[in-house]
Structures are given as C-alpha cells and as structure tokens.
Amino acid sequence: MRNYEIIYILKPDYDEEKVTEIMEKYSNIIKNNQGEIVSEDKWGKRRLAYEIQDYREGFYILVNFKSEANVPTELDRVMKISDEILRFMIINKDEK
User: 9: Cβ–Cβ under 8 A, 6 or more apart, which residues?
Assistant: First the structure.
C-alpha cells in the first residue's frame, strides 16, 4: 500500500453537520476500497488565494491515507463530478 494525501476545499455555505456528512462520504470511498485512513483534519473556513466560482472562502479538509493505486483514481473521478467541491489535490507521498 502507498501513502497518499488529499486536500479538498468545500463551498463555505455548508454547516458543520453537512461538512461532516461530506467527509464521511469520501472517507467511505477510501475504506470501501480496502484503504486505511491515517488522519483527517478539518482546517475550517479559510480565505482563498483567489476567487473560485464567486467564493472568496472555502472549508479546507486534509486527509492522509494508505491504499492501492485504484483508490486515488476513484476519488479523483468522484470529486470531479461533485458540486460541493471547489478544488482538490491528491498527492502520492511516496514519490518525492
């Protein structure tokens, strides 16, 4: 299994309950594909470096996980079609 890191930015108009629900959705994608979550951090609402879809703030979430190569591919596919995500980036921490 490889080590990965994903950071994603949600739209700022979600309440705490909705943010937790969205985090569980993506965590379940990792877990259902035999991945293991090492850590999940809610960074909270932060100002964006530049405006994205007319938003000046976003809710940042960082997840470190271990999995096979198919899990980041599936996360990438699902996040690209999700309306709640403003931006995301998946990094393979083993390749430096």
Answer: 48, 52, 58, 59, 60, 61, 85, 86, 87, 88
CA distance linking residue 85 with residue 9, whole number of Å: 6
- The DSSP bridge partners found for residue 9 are 60, 87
> What residue ranges define each of the domains in the chain, with the CATH number in brackets?
2-92 (3.30.70.60)
pTM, two decimals, is 0.88
Give the type of residue at 87: R
Please provide residue 26's backbone torsions phi and psi, each rounded to the nearest 5 degrees.
-75, -30
Residue count of the chain: 96
Query: pLDDT tens, 46-59?
Result: 999 999 999 999 99
Q: How many angstroms from the chain centroid is the CA of residue 9?
A: 7
From CA 4, how far away is CA 38, in angstroms rounded?
Answer: 10
